[in-house]
Design goal:
This protein is an all-alpha fold. The protein has 15 helices and no strands. This is HTH cro/C1-type domain-containing protein.
């Protein structure tokens, strides 16, 4: 079964309820954080009390629970389709969500997903059309007071189509809120968004912002057993080393990382590392074949 705590926390944030208000007299702040991150479980009576504090019945919660992970799954498919430029998959998702719009199961999160899919479809299907879609992207995000994990995924999907200033206008307040409130339940989302912004600002020579976003990346500590995080961390730290320390060592480590991606059949990751390195002026050897 998927993480109940993750869904509980999304609902809490959507309803603008603080962790303290939710947990008071039920479980500790640290237990809640571990529950949300899938590190522990809570007693069934405590869980039901938490759900009640969200002004929900258990049946209502379970309905949202199913919808949350279906949406998360569809965002993963959308990301795959973008990376592989598979327009057919995006069109299938657009059709599925458009059909759902006329049912009583339609929610604001579904509408947001449909808008994201349509922007991606437009950009991938019109390679020569340089129409700026930033206003459409801005409309998707500006109405969101507090980002859910799925909203962070959506932002990363559309980041390529925004200027740095446009992206900053959307994401900076979210990251600042996270920093002020020290929210520990969205560390992974913050890490990956900050990493994307670090590379984007670095490529466009916005060194002041690049330093800021790298500091966020360096400050987030994810699960040491998470291979995905360890590989991303290796990429970010060695790119940072290239511009602040030993260029030769950094280049060699990035070449090793690319070879490791290839060995694991992670060709898209290897190609992305090559593309990013080229844009940054980091000359990796050409001997790797995908």
């Amino acid at each position: 079964m998927e993480n109940l705590g993750e869904v509980l926390d999304q609902i809490r944030r959507n309803r603008n309820i603080t962790i303290e208000s939710l947990c008071d007299g039920i479980i500790s702040h640290s237990t809640y954080s571990r529950f949300v991150n899938g590190k522990t479980t809570v007693a069934s009576d405590s869980f039901i009390k938490l759900v009640s504090r969200l002004h929900m019945t258990l049946a209502m919660f379970l309905q949202d629970y199913q919808g949350f992970f279906k949406l998360k799954h569809d965002y993963a498919i959308l990301n795959y389709a973008k990376n592989n430029r598979d327009i057919a998959i995006i069109e299938e998702l657009i059709t599925t969500y458009s059909d759902k719009k006329s049912t009583n199961k339609w929610k604001v999160f579904d509408e947001r997903f449909l808008k994201v899919a349509k922007v991606l479809h437009y950009k991938l299907n019109n390679k020569r059309n340089r129409k700026n879609v930033s206003s459409e992207i801005e409309k998707i995000f500006t109405s969101i007071k507090i980002f859910s994990d799925n909203d962070y995924i959506a932002f990363r999907l559309l980041l390529d189509y925004l200027s740095i200033d446009e992206a900053e206008a959307i994401i900076s307040s979210q990251l600042e809120r996270q920093n002020i409130e020290k929210v520990m339940t969205q560390i992974e989302s913050i890490y990956y968004v900050a990493g994307n912004m670090y590379l984007k600002t670095l490529i466009e020579n916005r060194d002041d912002l690049a330093s800021y976003y790298y500091s966020i990346v360096a400050d987030q500590k994810l699960d040491q057993m998470d291979l995905g995080w360890k590989l991303k961390h290796k990429k970010y730290t060695n790119i940072h080393l290239y511009f602040t320390g030993d260029k030769r060592e950094a280049t060699e480590e990035l070449e090793k990382l690319r070879e490791f991606y290839v060995d694991l059949n992670l060709e898209l990751e290897a190609q992305e590392l090559t593309r990013i390195s080229h844009k940054l002026g980091i000359q990796l050897k050409d001997k790797v074949s995908f």
